[in-house]
Amino acid sequence: QVQLVESGGGSVQAGGSLRLSCAASGYYCMGWFRQAPGKEREGVASIDSNGDTRYADSVKGRFTISKDNAKNTLYLQMNSLKPEDTAMYYCAADWAYGFCQIVVGRYRAWGQGTQVSVSS
User: Fold this and answer.
1) pLDDT means per 10 residues in the chain (120 residues)?
2) CA separation, residue 25 to residues 19, 45, 109 (Å)
3) Of 31, 45, 87, 102, which cross-links 65 as Cys (Cβ 3.0–4.6 Å)?
């Protein structure tokens, strides 16, 4: 079973920044998702092998997804964090060619998650 490994979560105050990392390589689509207690897992951002990116409206202008092919690492730079960004963040990936929509069903490989907590 493919395993992705996230790192970089933590606790910050509102307005702060964090950068998440995910060790992974060889996938066509890669993305970040998050899940808050009592809520469904939701898509945050995706990037395909061409470097094209997509973002959820709630994070546009604040979060940036990127990847370093030389380091086989996916990143999520999160700026201007808000308390509502508090959640477990998951790295996801899939090898199938096609549109990399930010929906759970598009991705077959998942990490274990890293917690992000933002206090007001």
Assistant:
1) 85 98 91 97 96 97 96 96 98 94 95 96
2) 19, 17, 11
3) 45
Strands 18-23 and 10-13: unpaired
CA dist 33 to 10, 30, 46, 70, 120, Å?
A: 16, 10, 9, 23, 22
pLDDT of residue 11: 98
CA distances from 41 to 33, 36, 93 (A): 7, 7, 15
Q: Residue 91 contacts by C-beta under 8 Å, 6 or more apart in sequence?
A: 4, 5, 6, 20, 22, 24, 30, 31, 32, 74, 110, 111
Q: What is the C-alpha separation between 54 and 16, in angstroms, rounded?
A: 22
* N-terminal to C-terminal alpha carbon distance within the chain: 39
